[in-house]
Each structure stands twice: as structure tokens, then as C-alpha cells.
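Colleagues,

For the teaching module next term, I've prepared a clean inverse folding example: a structure given as C-alpha cells, and then the sequence designed for it. I'd like students to try predicting residues themselves before seeing the answer, so please don't circulate the second half yet.
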């Protein structure tokens, strides 16, 4: 059993904001995406990482009085990241954007250990030199955070942070001095959590929420468009999408944004899975259907019974075993069509997103060409309570919609992508998600106030195509 670390948290100074409203112009900068040839071979580690992130195991166990923070394993996962500037004068870093966590941390130049080889430059090529920042303040204490495949350790601290044209003075962060090899590759330097403060390991106010609390955002929300590239092994870099902070980008979606109130108190961005169909057949979602909407996860994780029923609806599908346990495979020639609803429209997932790639005959146990599926069995929760998710809905779904994360009133919104917004590469047809409407009193009009949207420069760093944060 993996126990999460006991945290020692010190009281930090209140956040002080001193930032003018960013320029009214909207700037869109392409996301860069790197790819790795063999994605499927890394699935077992990625799946276990997601289970660790949300406190799941194959068997029942007790949750300790601990906290955990996810991190992207760039050797196995894909991730969307953005440029963040920290310190005075500012130093810039690529950090993963993750709605499934709430803390900001970055590797520092004081890093002393990174397994083999013994150099933190092998974990993060760009490191924060705290001594060069006149506004950096360390708590003097130490915090270690253990993950499914390693750990980070550092000092809770404060410094000036700038992101997307906004600045927060005295932003809480973890200045990391020790990283286990493999948690980051040389491109990324840390993570920025976009969840609520209630799940912060540092007991900190996340950057976006600090802006919202100080009325710095033109609208109390941020929104994502995630680009799709499938089955193009030769691609090293590619556009990856856009994050808009404080508004939406109406050129990337059509129709209205359908908002659904959060299920439970703000922590993760939680919705209830209302209905599901596979190959045109209705699949019961069971009595426990609370889902975390997580940009830091590529696959969709579902409860055991539901996962079994999902793949039972796909002719010839098989449950994989051994280190691939929890994953399913199906004939690569089969087009798997899934629709999912969270209480409003039923959204279609492109079959290309349900096919993660072919598995070897030694894994599938068959001579037929089999491919791994985009929905897997997350296992058994070791948590309890009304706000513990039993589903994790990641980019397998989110690439098919324009997604909006709204603080007040707390909700997640989805809209149909505009005709040219969602594309696929070799091996998949160009498409955009379609939705079947149902009665929903929370359907809102699309935002037209474009001068409030501050799109961020993103870097989608792809070491494989499954962003399962540890």
C-alpha cells in the first residue's frame, strides 16, 4: 500500500496582489507537443500513477492523515504546460497545467539529488535560482511529498509569480530541492495546480483563485481547448491548444456553453456522470458516479463494474492481465463509439481518442491485432465521503469539447467545438464533438466579451499520449 506523506505546513503571509488588468488584446500562442514512439508500453505505470493520485488501490485500505500532490511523469505521459515567471527579476519556467491539483511547485538550483545520474539537470533543465530573486521568502521548514514512482522535497516559500499577464505577489509555492529521476523530463520544471484551495497540500491559495478573490479576473473562470493529434509517430512538435484565463474564446466553440453546477463542495472540479452509451447501447453508471474533470489526465478512469460493462459492449474486447490489469484491449479494426452525459447534453467521444495504440501479442495473449482502450478500471477507492470521486475524466473526453471551469457560481461548462477547432492527424478523420441537447436550466449564452480573455502560451510536452499525473 502506498501511504501519502504527512505534511508539516507553516503559516504563510497573506497574498498581496499588485497587478494591473492585462491588455485587452487577445494573443494565441501555439502549444508545442513532443511525442514518444511506444505509448502502450508505458500504460501500466501511467494507470498506477492515476490510482495513486486519487487514492485508489486494487483492494480496500484505510486512508492516512496525509495529503498528496500529482506530478506529470514526462517519460510516460503527455502534458499541457504554460510559461510561468517567478521572482524579481522574473525567471521563466514551463509548468504543467492541472485541474486535478492545487499547488505550484518548481525545481530549484539547490537541487542536490536526482537518482541516477546524480544531477537535477536530468530532471528539469530550467531551474529556479532563488538567490537571484529579491522577493523570494522561504519558510525555513521542509516538506516532502511522495508519489507512486518517486518523491519531491523542498521548502514552502513565497515569491512574485506572473502568469498570462497577471501577477500575484507573495504567492505560496514549494521550492523543490530534491526530485526523483523520472518525475519530470528536461523540458518541464514543475506544476501549477488549477483546483481549489481545499485540496492544496501547502494550504495555499492557488494562483487562479488568488486572482479571483482579488477581483482581478474579468470573469471568474478559465477555459481550455485541447488539440488532438493521433497516430502520427513521426511528429516531434505540433500545436496543442489554448488556455484562456478570465474568459472564453468564442472562435473555438459554437453554440452556447452548457454549465453544470459542481457536485459537492469545491475541491476537485466534480460532476456526476449521468449517462453513458457504448456502441449505441446504454451502460449503467451505477450509484456512485462522481467524476473529477482533470486536464492532467489523458485517459478516463471508471469504477470496476462500469468498466466491465463498457467493454462488454465492444465485441471481441478482452481484459488485460499482469502489469496491464485494469486496462482493456479490442480489435484495432473496431471503431469504439462512446457518448457521455453529466446531466445535460450527451457528448460523443471521437473513436480516435478511444484507441491508445496497439498492444503486443505477449500482452493480449492473442494473435489478432489488438489495441488498448481509452477507458480503464481505476480500482477500489480508499477514501470515503461525499466528495471522493469514483471517476476521473481526462483528455480522452476533454479533447472533444471546449471546457470552462467557473468559480462563481461554481460549475464546469462544455461547448461544442467550432468546425475547425478539433483536428486529427494521420489515421483519424477530422472531427468535432457533437452533442445531443436535453433540458438544462444552467445552459448559458456563449461569451462575446473577448477583451477580457487572456489566453496563455501553452506547451504540450508529449513523452507519450497519456497524461496521468502521479
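(Answer key — instructors only)
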Amino acid at each position: 500500500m502506498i501511504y501519502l506523506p504527512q505534511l508539516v505546513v507553516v503559516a504563510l503571509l497573506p497574498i498581496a496582489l499588485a497587478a494591473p488588468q492585462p491588455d485587452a488584446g487577445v494573443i494565441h500562442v501555439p502549444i508545442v507537443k513532443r511525442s514518444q514512439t511506444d505509448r502502450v508500453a508505458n500504460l501500466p505505470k501511467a494507470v498506477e500513477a492515476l490510482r495513486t493520485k486519487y487514492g485508489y488501490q486494487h483492494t480496500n485500505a484505510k486512508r492516512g492523515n496525509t495529503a498528496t500532490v500529482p506530478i506529470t511523469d514526462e517519460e510516460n505521459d503527455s502534458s499541457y504546460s504554460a510559461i510561468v515567471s517567478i521572482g524579481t527579476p522574473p525567471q521563466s519556467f514551463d509548468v504543467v497545467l492541472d485541474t486535478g491539483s492545487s499547488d505550484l511547485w518548481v525545481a530549484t538550483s539547490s537541487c542536490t539529488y536526482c537518482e541516477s545520474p546524480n544531477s537535477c539537470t536530468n530532471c528539469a533543465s530550467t531551474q529556479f535560482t532563488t538567490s537571484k530573486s529579491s522577493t523570494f521568502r522561504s519558510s525555513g521548514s521542509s516538506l516532502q511529498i511522495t508519489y507512486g514512482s518517486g518523491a519531491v522535497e523542498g521548502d514552502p516559500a513565497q515569491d512574485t509569480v506572473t502568469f498570462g499577464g497577471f501577477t500575484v505577489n507573495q504567492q505560496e509555492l514549494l521550492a523543490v530541492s530534491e526530485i526523483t529521476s523520472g518525475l519530470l523530463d528536461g523540458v518541464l520544471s514543475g506544476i501549477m495546480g488549477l483546483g481549489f484551495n481545499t485540496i492544496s497540500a501547502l494550504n495555499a491559495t492557488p494562483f487562479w483563485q488568488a486572482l479571483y478573490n482579488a477581483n482581478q479576473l474579468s470573469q471568474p473562470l478559465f477555459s481550455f481547448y485541447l488539440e488532438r493529434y493521433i497516430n502520427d509517430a513521426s511528429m516531434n512538435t505540433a500545436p496543442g491548444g489554448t488556455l484562456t484565463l478570465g474568459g472564453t474564446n468564442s472562435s473555438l466553440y459554437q453554440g452556447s456553453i452548457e454549465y453544470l453546477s459542481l457536485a459537492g463542495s469545491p475541491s476537485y472540479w466534480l460532476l456526476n456522470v449521468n449517462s453513458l452509451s457504448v456502441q449505441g447501447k446504454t451502460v449503467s453508471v451505477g450509484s456512485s458516479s462522481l467524476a473529477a474533470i482533470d486536464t492532467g489526465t489523458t485517459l478516463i478512469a471508471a469504477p470496476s463494474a462500469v468498466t466491465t460493462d463498457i467493454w462488454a459492449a465492444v465485441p471481441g474486447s478482452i481484459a488485460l492481465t499482469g502489469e496491464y490489469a485494469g486496462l482493456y484491449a479490442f480489435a484495432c479494426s473496431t471503431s469504439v463509439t462512446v457518448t457521455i452525459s453529466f446531466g445535460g447534453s450527451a457528448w460523443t467521444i471521437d473513436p480516435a481518442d478511444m484507441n491508445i495504440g496497439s498492444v503486443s501479442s505477449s500482452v493480449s495473449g492473442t494473435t489478432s491485432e489488438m489495441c488498448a482502450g481509452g477507458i480503464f478500471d481505476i480500482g477500489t477507492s480508499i477514501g470515503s465521503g461525499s466528495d471522493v470521486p469514483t471517476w476521473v475524466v481526462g483528455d480522452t473526453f476533454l479533447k472533444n469539447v471546449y471546457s470552462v471551469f467557473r468559480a462563481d457560481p461554481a460549475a464546469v461548462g462544455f461547448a461544442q467545438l467550432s468546425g475547425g477547432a478539433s483536428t486529427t492527424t494521420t489515421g483519424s478523420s477530422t472531427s468535432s464533438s457533437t452533442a445531443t441537447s436535453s433540458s438544462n436550466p444552467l445552459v448559458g449564452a456563449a461569451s462575446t466579451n473577448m477583451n477580457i480573455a487572456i489566453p496563455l502560451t501553452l506547451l504540450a510536452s508529449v513523452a507519450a499520449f497519456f497524461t496521468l499525473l502521479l
